[in-house]
Amino acid sequence: MFIGKYNKSVIVTYLGVLSTMLGIYLILGYSVPKITGAIICLMVSGICDMFDGKVARMCKNRTEEDKEYGIQIDSLTDMISFIALPIVTLYGMSIYFDIALNPIITVIVLTLFTVAGISRLAFFNLGANSEDGPVKYYSGLPVTTTAMIFPAIYLLRYVIPKDIFVSIYLGAFVLIAFLFVYNFKIKKPKKNWWYITCSVLAIIMTAILVYLKVK
What we know:
Blueprint: H1 11-28, H2 35-58, H3 64-96, H4 103-125, E1 137-139, H5 146-154, H6 162-181, E2 185-187, H7 191-214
Antiparallel strand pairs: 1-2
Helix pairs in contact: 1-2, 1-3, 2-3, 2-5, 2-7, 3-4, 4-6, 5-6
């Protein structure tokens, strides 16, 4: 009846989309953007992305079409969650801190970030750099790492002047864009260790952000 797939093998991916859209709404839906909430949503989207493949593999009777659909929907979700949401969050910060970003520099930087991100996703969607057996190294910085990098940088807002902080945050887009497409090797961590580490870090950063927000 409907185009697409909506079974339990992709439910965690769609939950990540829900978190992303909530984060975008927290920025665009209020006259004073809810930056902390949006940053937390970014981390939640990252956790969903980390576990969606694991949940999908637990689903029995997955067809090859289901697997391919999962790969494609995951990549499209990455584009929204880890490229679009950080950009929208930067826009919210400029409003929240009442700092006028240079329009020319900002457009150039964010365009580079977007092009680098989607180029990376498209490159690996084609199966580039595939190899037999488990992948031991990432080539370049995975797009999903923005779910942890930007929240970590955001904590600097509490210890440095807001204008310097926003400049650093904008500058991070340049560095991350470069690392997206620069062909260097990053050793891929063991999955169970990585799941636990990222989940704990997300909980810790969320707790810190909430505490600093309400204190």
